[in-house]
Specification:
alpha+beta, 3 domains, D-Maltodextrin-Binding Protein, domain 2, globular, three-stranded antiparallel sheet, five-stranded mixed sheet
Length: 515
């Protein structure tokens, strides 16, 4: 049994605020000792291609940082005052923050800005990076990685490798939070568990017993607030330590080889689909989920669900929301088995790329470095101004004085700098920070699949996934009834070609990593 991350949510426990590693914000500045660029005659004041003066002092630069979501009023204020002044002092750069809707992430307006040659930086995922680098839209940041020296002290090497292609660094990772075994634990409403006379959940049998008892006591509640439990239920359908590269491909982390697993044609998928069908028929997954998946999240947030897929941080991420509905809710992470190491992709939250049209890529990297340079800057960018936006007690516990978000809570969360409020017990903080201590980096960490040779097949496969395979995997459709037709469509869409190409690329990459 493994139990981590248990604590009560008080009525004023606004735990979501703990996570405000909202560092993203801090972005407009200028380097200490900045001077004006020379006018052309003096070698001592001449500038190089990056806009930095030959004397070693930084010429003034202008940067544009794109963030996604809504910009708060407090963010607007700080971007023009304290953030501006401090960043100018540090790296002599004026930063413009531009907020876009999330619908523009990894496409839409972001694509347009890249294709029209705008000078900017924003965050990326590995898939978007691969596609954009193939088009020449990301700057190669390899020559400038030394400018992230402070950040590199708190972000692990695996996170940097995750954003490399052909040995070149195309994005700088930020954040340092426990990421191993994401969604492999079950996050249980411990208050409900104890109400029905149970103390822990260490197996699928106990989880279903908990559902039966809680359902009898509270028939208005749903069981599982999700439709994907392949990680959580791993111990009950395979002896392999599976870790997914994407929806179609998994790796067995317990095997010392480079073989990929075609998930939807595996025996494991068949067994897993059977478990999920049982949950759907039993009512653990509510019937409405087949047509209204978003309602599951809403029910969890309002305290109307018994359990969810867990992560190291989920007992307190979003706690403000659930505690508003159930002030005495208590959440605990459990694993439904033991003996398999937790797998990690790296500890990063996200990574920033710089557009290939940028005049000064190095200055952007210097800005990324500021976001996680030290506690003082972290506090500024994450929480604002002490005494105005937050206070600290004698134990460095934080009390937020404003609810305005500076940047998304998840973005730059760093366990070395994050501050917790008084509603989080010391033992939970210790367990959270130690969550990754026994984790193993995935053997696929740092591999980025180039889908160019099978782009058409991938598009078709995603359609088959949505229409045929996801309903089977969620238990909405019986495997024996629905799988034959789903497999027929899968084959017609080109799954064999896709798997062959993925295996070829992964094997070649694997050889390089082990030379």
């Amino acid at each position: 049994m493994r139990e981590v991350g248990s604590f009560m949510f008080g009525k004023k426990g606004w735990l979501g605020l703990l996570m405000t590693a909202v560092l993203l914000l801090g972005a407009c500045s200028q380097g200490g000792g900045a001077t004006t660029t020379g006018t052309g005659g003096s070698d001592a004041n001449s500038t190089d291609a990056s806009g930095n003066e030959a004397s070693g002092e930084l010429a003034q630069a202008k940067l544009k940082i794109v963030l996604y979501g809504d910009e708060s009023n407090r963010m607007k204020q700080l971007a023009k005052t304290e953030f501006y002044n401090r960043i100018k002092q540090e790296i002599n750069a004026e930063v413009e923050f531009q907020f876009l809707p999330w619908t523009e992430y990894a496409g839409g307006k972001t694509d347009l800005m890249l294709s029209t040659g705008e000078d900017f930086a924003t965050y990326t995922d590995a898939n978007y990076m691969v596609k954009s680098v193939a088009k020449g839209l990301y700057a190669d940041l390899t020559p400038y990685t030394e400018a992230s020296a402070d950040l590199s002290q708190t972000v692990d090497e695996a996170s940097f490798k995750a954003f490399q292609l052909g040995g070149k660094q195309y994005a700088i990772p930020v954040g340092n939070k426990p990421n191993s075994a994401e969604f492999y634990s079950v996050l249980v409403r411990q208050d409900l568990l104890e109400e029905v006379g149970m103390s822990e959940v260490t197996s699928l049998a106990q989880l279903e017993e908990y559902y039966d008892k809680a359902h009898a006591a509270h028939p208005e509640l749903i069981g599982y607030a999700g439709v994907d439990a392949r990680r959580m239920l791993l111990y009950d359908y395979t002896d392999k330590n599976l870790y997914w590269q994407n929806d179609f491909v998994a790796l067995d982390e317990s095997a010392q080889d480079d073989r990929i697993i075609n998930w939807f044609e595996s025996e494991e998928f068949k067994k897993y689909a059977g478990l999920m069908r049982g949950w759907y028929e039993k009512g653990i997954i509510p019937k409405y989920a087949a047509t209204n998946v978003p309602q599951l999240q809403s029910d969890w947030n309002s305290g109307k669900a018994m359990f969810w897929a867990g992560t190291a941080a989920r007992p307190f991420e979003g706690a403000a929301t659930i505690s508003q509905a159930v002030p005495d809710a208590k959440l605990v992470n459990y694993f439904l088995g033991e003996g398999r190491p937790k797998i990690s992709r790296g500890t990063y939250s996200t990574a920033f790329f710089v557009s290939s049209a940028a005049k000064d890529p190095e200055r952007y990297v210097m800005f990324f470095n500021l976001l996680q340079k030290d506690q003082e800057l972290y506090d500024l960018f994450a929480y604002g101004i002490e005494g105005t936006d937050y206070t600290l007690d004698e134990n460095d516990r934080i009390t937020r004085l404003t609810t305005d978000s500076l940047i998304p809570d998840w973005l730059l969360m760093n366990k070395n700098f994050i501050r917790f409020d008084n509603s989080v017990p010391d033992d939970f903080i210790a367990e959270y920070k130690a969550w990754d201590d026994d984790a193993v980096i995935s053997k696929g960490a740092g591999f980025n699949f180039d889908n160019t040779p099978v782009k058409n097949e991938e598009t078709k496969l995603n359609g088959v996934l949505t229409e045929y395979l996801a309903p089977i995997g969620s238990g909405f459709v019986d495997y024996e009834t629905g799988y034959p037709k789903a497999l027929e469509r899968l084959k017609a869409a080109g799954i064999d070609k896709y798997i062959v190409e993925y295996q070829k690329q992964f094997s070649a990459w694997h050889v390089e990593q082990n030379q």
